Amino acid sequence: MSARKPSPISSERTPLLAEPEDAPSHHPPSPSDSLDDIQGKKRKRWPTIVALTVLCLAVLLICLGLALPSVIEEYAKEGMVFEPTKLTIDSFTSFGVRARIQGDFYMDASKVQHKATRDLGRFGTWIAREVESKTSTVDVFLPDYNDVLLGSATVPPMKLNIRNHQHNNINFIADLEPGDVDGIRRIAKDFLDQKINSLNVKAIARVSVRSGLINVGKQTITQFLKLQGQDIPTVPAFDLQKLRFAEHGLPGHPDGLKAMAVVSIANQYPVTFDVPSLAFEVLLPDCSDDYLSLGTARTDIIHIAPNKNISVGVTGIVQQLPTSLTSACPGSDSSPLDSFVADYLGGRETIVYIRGGDQDESTPEWIGNLLKDTILPFPLPEHQFDNLIKNFSLEDTHFSLPDLGSETYPKISAVVKVMVGLPAEMNINMDVDKVRADAEVFYKGDLLGNLDLRKWQSSNATKIDGDLLVQSIVKEAPLIISNDDVFTSVVHELLFGEGVSLEVHAKVDVHTNTALGTFVVRNIPAQGDIFIKPINGGFKMPEIKGMEVVETSEHALTLQAKVNVTNPTEYSASVPYCNVSLLVNDTRVGYAWISADIVPGPNEVIMRASWEVGSVGREWLSQFISGYNTTLTVKTHANSIPRFPNVDLELTMPTPRIFGHFLKETTMHILSSTATFVLVSPFALYITSIAAHAYYNGSEIGTINWEYPFAIEEGENVTPRLPVEWGGNALGTIRDALGGTLKVDANADVGVKIGKWQEQIWYEGKGLGAKIRL
């Protein structure tokens, strides 16, 4: 290449690196010592490797071009000092880079260890005084990489004073040309993978030198340099800032997605230059070991100033997602895009990869070639989407319990409403038309079970104040209960507590329509809370009516009744079958079962109950018809609901009244010594026997002993005239009350028969009004 005229010396003279010490060295010199002198003893920096290495070696090798005796040559090697103060890239050219280097060059005899070499060197350089070079070239190779050519430098002519401590201000423009592009890519990959622990550098200079009238001619000089430890740089830190997403294309007719960001890169080096706008491909890993193109990106012009962080504006465009990016990998139900989105939304480290793309005409071809096959990892900033799901609620909830003979689980149907808090930087329209999920339900940190939503459910999305409201109609989603104890706690809290807050952890698949097209994003992590209101808030005692006997046996009586119950919650339920035990004083006296569809508010259900013969049941029934305040305990048992955990629920409640009083009215006939009674019964039965006693003020006034059956119909019934045997002075008391009413107490043992079922019960009444007639 032809020589280029040096530019004027820059006014920036402030050294950017520490100056060397004047004291003599106390260890044998080596090529690496020269590097330490260049950089200073405090810190070793990468500029000498990347940019300054080529130029500094050029200066050193030019100075070594004198064909001096070996002693003088040794003096030159040990005593040369070059302190770079500034490196500026003047321009990017079609062949490489045109750079300006500024610095201070001088000889320091104190750095030469051996006195003889030091003295002869000072004498020789005093005589020579100056050296002058013509246009020179320097090639830099890396022996560790099969002598790959890192780059070449063309250095203009230069004149230097080489006497001891004669400072030379250097300011020249050199042309730098990259070497083997493939080799540089390999080095770059090892550098990014942090595999370089040491690096050997070999520089070969071809330089023509003269000193005064002596023309030494063209010399080829080789110099070696070993870099290790802190000489090896680390990947510069960078920070992705101001990341925003928007639709790309005409308003209302987007054809893609646009991402805008500012990347801040740490720069600790004394370099100044502008980098032209660069184009990149944005890649994601595919199912194997290759990459898939996600979109393109372009940087703004990059301004680099010495020792200042670099800010780079980047705009990325995604216009169409390839099918291979959204298709599930072989042997998996996840696509490459699924894994990427799940990691990003889950707050885990998420990496995209960039590779040089098609550059425009303003970018030199060699830059495009260098970047084209170089793939660099680009970590996205970790983003914890803690508030992604702002609200998770169920409306119009319907529970379906398992039926007899069914192998299914309890099922839930509901309108699921999810308020998604979109990040402020995502200014895009999104329509979700179907969702599905596999959800785990927790209560107080313990797993309750799994809500199986693996079937696609129709949904729609509405944007509200920057958030996204997704509504989905869930139909009969199985609830697979995995912890019976937790389920029992939930039911008890619903019945007797203040409601239940359930936590749902789900992996959601979303079928979405966006500016990128229609595709499925799988395994999006979601979390939300569902509060179920307590049932006891508006609980009312059931109202029983329409009771009838539907079946009898010698040991049991089966009753059926219409029961009016009020569901105080907003939830509905289908109960194909539910069976509970009926207890009196911890003794089972029968069973009750229902089949019903329960809706919020009033409900009429059909209930059946089987009443068994036994002393406890007989006692309770006697108290009940006598008007006592009785209670009945309802308790669940195993298989109360088929294939449903036993919630061990026990509820004791006052017995609802199904009629006013069994004995409504009594009439005593004096002349015939008989009595008639008005009895009230909810269903038809037979009275098989009566042994009764009546008292007034503690004195017995009459008895009845009747052993002939008579029928009682449903409702009010007047019994036949039953013979009365008056007691002692009873007639006088009764005559005194003739035409009026006498308040009496009574007790009786009554035989009752309904179909095949018979039972002997007792009855007690206080203050009964008995009419006295002739």
Structure description:
This protein has 774 residues and is mostly beta strands. It folds into five domains: 31-231, no CATH class; 238-380, Immunoglobulin-like (Sandwich); 389-534, Immunoglobulin-like; 537-654, Immunoglobulin-like (Sandwich); 663-773. It contains twelve helices and 43 strands. Strands 19, 20, 22, 23, 24, 25, 26, 27, 28, 29, 30, 31, 32 and 33 form a 14-stranded mixed beta sheet that branches. Strands 1, 2, 3, 4, 5, 6, 7, 8, 9, 12 and 15 form an eleven-stranded mixed beta sheet that branches. A hairpin with a 4-residue loop joins strand 1 and strand 2 (97-107). Helix 4 (70-79) packs across helix 5. The longest helix has 14 residues, at 115-128. The radius of gyration is 50 Å and the shape is rod-shaped. The model is unreliable at 1-52 and 61-68 (pLDDT under 50). Residues 1-38 are annotated as: Disordered. Keywords: Membrane, Transmembrane, Transmembrane helix. This is Pre-rRNA processing protein.
Provide the gyration radius in Å.
Answer: 50 Å
First-to-last CA distance = 149 Å
Overall mean pLDDT: 78
Low-confidence stretches: 1-52, 61-68
Helix content: 10-25%
DSSP summary: helix tally? 12
In quaternary terms, these chains amount to: single chain
Shape label: rod-shaped
- Total strand count, please? 43
Structural class: mainly beta
Largest sheet at a glance?
14 strands, mixed
Per DSSP, what share of the residues sits in E-state strands of 2 or more residues? over 45%
- Estimate nothing, just give the exact number of structural domains: 5
Pfam family, one: LEA-2L_5
Keywords: Membrane, Transmembrane, Transmembrane helix
InterPro entries: Ig_Tag1-like_4th, Ig_Tag1-like_5th, Tag1, Tag1_C
Organism: Exophiala bonariae
